[in-house]
Amino acid sequence: MDPLVTVTMARHSRGPHIPIMSPRRRWPIALVILIVFTTVGVTRFAHFWLDDLARGRTTTAGPRFIEEMTGAYAGALVFALLMGLVNRWPLERHNWARRLGGYTAVVIALSLMHTSLMWASRVLLFPLAGLGAYDYGLMRYRFPMEFALQAPNIVLIVAGLHAWQFYRQARQRELRAAQLEGELNRAQLGSLEAQLQPHFLFNTLNAISSLMYSDPARADRMMGRLSDLLRLTFQRAPRAEVPLAGELEWLGWYLEIMQVRFGDRLTVRQAIAPDTTALAVPRLVLQPLVENALTHGAAKHAGPATVTIAARRDGDRLRVTVTDDGPGIDGDPAQALTSGVGLSNTAARLKALYGDAGQIALANLPAGGLVVTLDLPARPA
Hints:
- This protein is α+β, with helices and mostly antiparallel strands.
- Helices cover 62% and strands 12% of the residues.
């Protein structure tokens, strides 16, 4: 069987073959080939004609033009055929030895075809242009002479086409890998958000349950605020990132619920720089931080408690902090990033969205309290 037409399953097992020229792009590429080889023909004509003029030969413009343009257009046809060959039967690691003989035969055949096309077209065009009969010399010498020039050129073209195909395959693999990574990150984010929302909901329902018998009126108000918050959440399209202003709006509904729970002893302060409100933050990123502040602040003592939410832009970075005045965290605060659902979930979401460009840090304050800092890329939502 012809080695050039042997298609094995081994090729397909290495992934989809990426053609040099897709059907939708054939006409643009054909036009580019025509323009390139026309330019080559005109350039060679100008070179040889000017050389003739320099030698005092003033009547060679017509013959030179026909010779160089027929040579160029015959070369364009050879190039197009080579593109089809490499596209359909490329030399690959698993088949190059089997197909090498076929490629050698193709190189010889295309060289003979190129020489024959030049001879036939010039024999036809010279008389039509009034230049008399065309003399290409003895063909038994012309064929090997042209082959010595054309064979290396054809081999270089085949090598170049394979190099271009390998480059496109590498780029396609990179694109597929990036797409798969993006899909994995989106799936991971969806899973993390799915974990976060029930966690928030269960904690809020537990708080309502604790007030159900001691203060039914407050429990009822909390239930109403929770209903409003859930309605707002379901009405909004789920997105990985939202403007900081939108996240603060959602957080305000949550803080209303917490205000009902803690009453007048909870004070919430905000220090949001105006140039940060349109910057992107992960969706639902502030609620677990505020919940953590309330858990380690207001919920641990009966006195007044203050939670401060701040945001500022520092060059190409956005820094958001949530600070409480509670007793802080015993031991290493960084361990809370792996132990609690809310904080560990937030750290994982930042990693999925930003990689190393998104960071979360916890620190106990010298005077008491805990500060949680988000360090994110400053970019529009």
